[in-house]
Amino acid sequence: MKYLFHLLFFIVFPQILSAQETQKMYLSGTGNDHTVNWDFFCTAGRNSGKWTTIPVPSNWEMQGFGKYNYGFAKDSSRGKEKGLYKHVFQVPKTWKGKVINLVFEGVMTDTEVKINGQLAGEKHQGSYYAFKYDISKLLVEGNNTLEVSVSKHSENQSVNEAERKGDFWIFGGIFRPVFLEALPQEHIKRVAINADASGNLKANIFVNPSSENAVINAQLHTIDGRKVGQAIKANILAGQNTISIENNYPAINLWTSETPNLYKLVVSFIEKGKVQHIITQQIGFRTVEVRQRDGVYVNGVKVKFKGVNRHSFWANSGRTLSKSISLLDVGLMKDMNMNAVRMSHYPPDDHFLTVCDSLGIFVFDELAGWHGNYDTKTGTKLLKELMVHDENHPSVIFWINGNEGGHNYELDPIFPQEDIQKRPVIHAWEDFGGFDTQHYRDYNYGIGNYDNGHHIVMPTEFLHGMYDGGHGAGLEDYWEKMWVTPLSAGGFLWDFVDQGVVRTDKNGILDTDGNRAADGIVGPYREKEGSYFTIKEVWSPIKMEAKEITSAFDGKLNIENRYHFTNLKNCSFTWKLKDLTTSNKIEKTGTAIAPNLKPLEKGQISITLPQDWQQYSVLYLTAFDAFKKEIFTWSFKIVLPQNIAKSMVKTTGEKPVQIVEKDSLFEVQSKDLTILFNKKTGLLQGVKNAKGFIPFNNGPIVQEGATNFQNFTHKTENGNIIIESTFDRKSAYNTLQWTIYPSGWVKMKVNYFPAAYLTTFFGVNFSFPENEIKGVEYMGNGPYRVWKNRMKGNQFGVWKKDYNTTETGEIPFVYPEFKGYHSNMYWCKFLTKSQDFTVVTENEDVFFRLFTPAFKTDPYQNYVLNFPSGDISFMQGIAGIGSKTNRVENTGPMSMKHIFYDYEKEPKRAIELVLYFDFTGK
């Protein structure tokens, strides 16, 4: 009998509980991965003037209707483009007698709603906010007809100024879900909760007043359903519509971005001993405090925000997203070791905030405004809709009242009036409320303010990531200063995703509106650019000190705990030894004990390596967080390039090398190889082996420097041919020596001086036709290209890259890009359409450059691609890169030009570069 009772309880009780909860019935789909077709009529643009169908939710441009608009563009369809929707539905008979609301999660932009031909209420103006109508009295039994008229642009000019004139795509349509909710006549309308770090919980409960006295019962549960503490009970007098409750939970687990502990508060409305209505809110206990002239504190701990701006965007559905996309995006942010996100420039989908709650991301939620703002009446209404929708998410810790001048100051006092948590309010790109949030500061100007100002510095946009500039480029300089500066609260990169929209009017191309929308760290479908991995390393909560691995290495590495709330003993570490010279040698792996380091403490991690560790090429160390997610993998080189060169380069052969002079050339024969050098300049003119010509020539050209090799002589030495120039301090201070071995290998040694005290790059160039290359295989850091101010994020290893023409932020979004600078080369095999050849160096810190990416148009002339002449280069200093808003030289020390202070032009002071070439075709 006891078993039967429990069985019936678990079968029946959930059904009773479900009946008491708010019931929901979707009229649309739930996102871009689940839609429902409605009847549709577009009044202007493509496919207009006829009734057809459209999936809901969606943006109608993405479905082939109307006109695509970017916010800066003059729109000839303004005021003309509307969408008329019709949908027939039936209400469950069990809902009879209930209050039935029609809820829209988001519609662009003015929305007029009719049920069975009657207006449901006043027209709603504003795109990104959930709104509802009580349609109980408008419904009939059987079929009900819903009609929605949507104007892409608002009749309210302030709405257009705030939402429709901006640096982003402008869409139209019912772009978020539509549903019905059924509630009992006596019900809970809203629960506003403040759960703080002391364990204290306060809630304001708004009810549909009853004619009878009633009771509110609130019970806290763990996320898996276990009760926490005693229930809170409070009486509601007849006609009363608001009540406040309070309780303390002394042993509560707090919510942070590192420990996203969640609870459920189940609030019941009880009348005459019967539960009328139940609302369940997912909450987290945490306290956000701004200490003026100091910083932002969460649960009493000072935090720095590693943040990014995020538009709600997907390439083929515009602003219509899904929970799976929210999971993807937050997962990528967490993978980059971010802890914060700014909602630019409007509130997000509810499921995005839910995912931020559960995975742990601080959210800065924003009332829309972009250089323009809502009028006070409209803004007040939309602000309240924002608050009701988002207020209980523990991830939401700041409100932002508009962006870059789009602030209505009359709305500022309404935020704390409506918000039970009294969250801080800031203005993006303004010195306001004790926060200096100015955008895109030069490094020097910005750091000057950090050190000399008095307000908390927290740029809500910095390092604008147009194309491949910004984001990772300069980030390490900015972040290291932010980290040690007391008044810095971190900042937010611009921005997360390239907004390449599928143009259904242009055969499905991905359009970023030129350079305007190519600002992301990831592509339209979340393709990872090089900056993704730079950010992952620079923002790693475990700071790994650089270490040269020598024979004296004792297995100890210096580290710093840059978590705010986590002891490193809760993390874990694994290591791996790998031999990159052979595939036959088995890797060796192991674990390392995580040190007991509190947040902000420094210490060491010890790795117990096998006795033969020096026989391997590289040591990898991977850190995992408390949830077993990878933080980062660092690589430490064990072998030096001179050792690899010694093992690879063959010098001996059966026959001595022969040389003859023919007109203006030295013609050298070694085995089946013929090499031609210019007698006057010493430059390589041609290479031929038994298989044919290799079109690698016209080098080495010194850059930035003088290619002034002169007075070449040649000699035979130990069966080798040596061709070398003569040093002259005035006219031939750069020298070149070629050594051709009987094996067919060729050695080049260049001693050179950069042209000036400050240089953008320095090294040597060669020519090679781009249409002949298929790819490269190389030992070095990879697989992504680098810039002088974006070196982090790669690992040392052997990489293979196929040729592609990808230009960052443009079609095709295929990464890693092939063209550009690559760091720490030991050797590189060039895979060509005719025959391959290999280049090896014995120098450390050599870069190889593969061709030149296409120059991008930048009206500000800040994003500049600096590459040497020629096609393939071997560099010892490379260029940095700027961004949309900052020239390269203004983004920190790493971005500055190279300094070479020596005008003596003496051979011993020259920079030396040694390369070995294998042209034998093996």
Radius of gyration, in Å, reads 33 Å
- What's the tally of helices? 10
Helix content: 10-25%
The chain-level structural class is mainly beta
The number of domains: 6
Number of strands: 64
End-to-end distance: 83 Å
CATH class of the largest domain: Alpha Beta
Strand order of the largest sheet: 50-51-52-53-64-60-59-56-57
CATH architecture of the largest domain: Alpha-Beta Barrel
CATH superfamily descriptor of the largest domain = Glycosidases
Strand content: 35-45%
User: How would you state the average pLDDT, rounded?
Assistant: 94
Overall, the morphology is: elongated
Specify the biggest β-sheet.
9 strands, antiparallel
Q: Unreliable segments (pLDDT under 50, ≥5 consecutive)?
A: 1-17
- CATH level 3 topology of the largest domain: TIM Barrel
List the helices and strands and how they pair.
Elements: H1 2-20, E1 23-26, E2 36-42, E3 51-56, E4 69-70, E5 82-90, E6 99-104, E7 107-108, E8 110-115, E9 118-119, E10 124-125, E11 131-134, E12 143-151, H2 157-164, E13 169-170, E14 173-174, E15 178-183, E16 188-195, E17 200-207, E18 214-222, E19 227-236, E20 242-248, E21 263-271, E22 274-283, E23 288-291, E24 295-298, E25 301-303, E26 305-310, H3 323-335, E27 340-343, H4 350-359, E28 362-370, H5 376-390, E29 396-403, H6 414-418, E30 425-428, E31 431-432, E32 435-436, H7 443-452, E33 456-457, H8 475-484, E34 490-493, E35 501-503, E36 509-511, H9 530-538, E37 542-544, E38 556-561, E39 572-578, E40 588-592, E41 602-606, E42 618-624, E43 630-637, H10 641-648, E44 658-662, E45 665-670, E46 673-678, E47 684-689, E48 692-694, E49 697-703, E50 713-717, E51 720-724, E52 735-740, E53 745-752, E54 758-759, E55 762-767, E56 773-782, E57 795-802, E58 820-822, E59 827-832, E60 837-841, E61 847-850, E62 872-877, E63 898-899, E64 911-918
Parallel strand pairs: 26-27, 26-34, 27-28, 28-29, 29-30, 32-33
Antiparallel strand pairs: 1-15, 2-3, 2-5, 4-13, 5-12, 6-11, 6-15, 7-14, 8-9, 8-10, 8-12, 16-17, 17-20, 18-19, 18-21, 21-22, 23-24, 24-25, 31-32, 35-36, 37-38, 38-41, 39-40, 39-42, 42-43, 44-45, 45-46, 46-47, 47-48, 49-55, 50-51, 51-52, 52-53, 53-64, 54-63, 55-62, 56-57, 56-59, 58-61, 59-60, ...
Helix pairs in contact: 3-4
